[in-house]
Amino acid sequence: MEQKVQINTARRFGTAPVFITAISTILGAILFLRFGFAVGTIGFTGSLLLVILGHLITIPTALAISELSTNTRVEGGGEYFIISRSFGLNIGATIGIALFLSQAISIAFYIIAFTETFEMLFQWWITKYGWELPRQVVSLPVLVILAILIIRKGANMGIGLLYGVAGVLFLSLIMFFLGSGEPELVKGEHFSSNFSFSNPQSFFSVFAICFPAFTGMTAGVGLSGDLKNPGKSLPIGTMAATIAGMLVYILVIWKMSVSVSTEALLSNQLIMSQIAVGGSIFVLMGLAASTLSSALGSVLVAPRTLQALASDKSFPLPGVNRRLSKGKGVTNEPRNASIVAFLIAFVFVGMGNVDAVAEIISMFFLITYGSLCLISFLNHWGSSPSYRPRFRSKWYFSLIGFLLSVWVMFMINPLYTVVAYSMIIVIYLVIEHYNKDRKGLVNLFRGALFQLNRKLQVYMQKNQSPIESEEWRPAAVCISANSFEREKIFDLMNWLSYRHGFGTYFHFIEDYFSRQSFLASREIMHQLVEIQKEEDSTLYIDTMISPSYTSAIAQIIQAPSISGMENNMVVFEYEKNQTEEVERIITNIALTKAGNFDVCVYGMGQSATRFRNGIHVWIRPVDYLNANLMILLGYIILAHPDWKKSKIKIFSICAPEQVEQTREQLNHLVEEGRLPITLSNIEIVPATENRAIHEIVEEKSKHAGLTIIGFREEHIKRRGAEYFNDFSSLDDVLFVNASQARKIVEKEE
Prior knowledge:
This protein is an alpha/beta fold. It has helices spanning 15-26, 29-33, 35-69, 79-87, 89-115, 119-129, 136-153, 155-178, 191-194, 203-210, 230-259, 262-267, 271-275, 280-311, 318-325, 335-351, 354-382, 395-412, 414-434, 441-444, 446-462, 488-497, 515-534, 549-558, 581-593, 627-638, 659-672, 693-701, 713-719, 721-725, and strands spanning 475-480, 502-510, 540-546, 569-575, 598-604, 615-619, 648-654, 682-686, 706-710, 733-737. The chain has a 10-stranded mixed beta sheet with strand order 3-2-1-4-5-10-9-6-7-8, sandwiched between helices.
């Protein structure tokens, strides 16, 4: 059973914390430390394209979040909650784990960046002592202090700090925009180089470093469990922060381009401090504020994602789920989950490389954003009546966001992309193994597949060409009351529908339609579907309630096929030791022929099918209509894996004087039709007056895996059941009657 995320009964935040958490994470470390490098490397035009491309991913994601959050009650877990309640818990948990890792690593990323504000301390240390002080002497203690404060004080303290650092952040940006740059920094190449698109080959390596700057727009979503009205606060806060952040970034790269030279942009990672009014003090304060606020945003979000994952019992160990889902106090603070998040951050802080950590974060965030956009697109395409968000995006925005997310991942680093998706697949397989009863991949595309099938059905009906001009393939339908006793009929229907055709099987219930008979039919259908699921069947299974066998046949031959093409073949079945059934089949063949259906009568033997002995097709002079259909059916059946080590053999009975002519015609037919039949497997049998046809067939095909023989309506009118009983010594026989001559070789237009 699905477990619901534990609901926080002390919701206390409005829209402002969502906006502040998102915008303070967006305007973070990358803005102060790497955008000068970006403008210096790829120029204003390249940087503008970078910002636009990044927001072509993040804006559709923000729209998707806004849409999804107004369609359902959003509890704790933010993006994970939205994904898991849209895709199912197994898919949601898989992406949720990747999301948690990206959020936890983000804590490390921002703490590493925060250490850069102590650049003067590190320079002083080198000057005084002559050796470089490791950055970790600052970053690790800062992380420990932050961890202690958050674990002890919880989200209220984090939100309070966010307001303070956000104020400092905006003050530093104002000072930056008011500045004009020191005169010596304007020397060298300036407007011409800064405003060009330089080094396009470096675009995606720069994009990988800078993309985490835009990912902060979902930071506020992680507070979903602490919001009074998530359906209102998440769309407004998220979209406002995304748009505001994009405008600020465009203004920043413009300001850098018009203020300093390319050399200055590339030589000083704190170039913003050289442009701002008041010098480095304000920018360093802004860097400290932005990195600390971004770290706080990740600290607030990552543990809540992990807590929600554990509450849904996503991990294989019950003890782990129990401890990580446990909250503290009335606000359900995720203390244990916070400890895990800080331990992961501690490991990556030890790496100390901003660019390396940024590339890893980009991969995990792109997977998450692509998933959110895919959910939104599938919901639009699926058009579920229950999907009624108060805020609506457009399906093409979501599709663009999904496709760009996947494309950009490969452009950044194909190896990292393959590793990231491989890790996602492994995580999913583990979760699926331990949670087989929960919604998985089937739930992912159900609505979209329904709509695709509906549109294809309507399209095919509107654009249907005349049957005579279509390439023939079987759309076979069979009805039988012996579904649980006769497995071979399912085998035949699967052979026909495996690769080249479509098969529908009806279990016949001889009764009048009533509530009782309907419920019984549903139960039987579910049993048959489960049986065929184990057999990896390609059949569509249903039931038919009707007062007689004839009326049931009349119903199914008039019913539309779900394949999109009209049914064109009816398959009857009987067992060789139940020859009285043949009379009932003969009675109803005329009914099917009234609808121009091809007719197959499958006579089943008692022994197992001898696949290695091959398929024998018997052609006689009277089979001028049936011959091609019989050969085609042999070829279609042979495509099934059951017959992979088998072959088709054609026997043609003709007058002695026509042996060579018949051989030449068959050789030509096989060659032109590119049929997998060797010439050595074509045998011409001269007819003799003293031997009956069935005697000749029995002699050569007694041990065949399947024998295909034609029949005409004249045969059953004249001889009735006796015609079919003539071949009772054979094992499995498929009698074929074509409504018209079929083409083996289609003429080119």
